[in-house]
Amino acid sequence: MASCSPDIKLTYFDMTGIAETIRLAFYIADVSFVDERIAFADWPKLKPSTPFGGLPIMVMDGKTYAQSRPLLRYAGKRTGIHPDDPLAALEIEMIVDGLYDIFVAMGTVRQDKDPQSKVQRQMEFKEKIFPHMMSSIDDLVGKTNPNYCIGESLTIADLMLYNVLDFFQKGVVDFMPKDCTKPYANSSKIHDHVVKHGKVAQWRQKHS
Q1: Does residue 147 belong to any structural domain of this protein?
Q2: What is d(CA 80, CA 153) in angstroms, rounded to the nearest whole number?
Q3: Which of 67, 114, 136, 166 is 20 to 30 Å from the Cα of 60, by its Cα?
Q4: What pLDDT band is residue 58 in, cutting at 50, 70 and 90?
């Protein structure tokens, strides 16, 4: 059922990245929101007005909220895909934060301005950091049901896992091969299951 209040505007760059999971959570549940996507060239002008100097930000009823993981937890609670039970939520957030750490580590490498150290850091990420992080995630997910990270139904962890794997599979990270996620069978199965979700398929078609 569509939700009509409060009015929501989610602002991020015109790409997938860390805001995509929030977008998907709202879209799957038919929660109406403004999907504002800004160009990188416009970011310096907007940055000083953001709470922590970063994106995404979300405006509801005139108030601005920030930090991607709290925004995702809110979206999950709002849409019923993040549980109220503290222990169940802890398990899910452990997966979400582990996946978020992959984004952070990758972003740190991409932002390195020194050509020599950047090459070294790219190699370290490719050969050590990414395999270690993804192996840890892969060992934790799909224990109860192979189609979901935790439990028997879709959660924000599944959307986050889908988003991270899709990011690499699309070749957005130029120093990583598109098949770098293939060795992680449990995670790949969950990714493929999320792709088949009707609303996710619609979203992918709209934003391909």
Answers
A1: yes
A2: 11
A3: 166
A4: very high
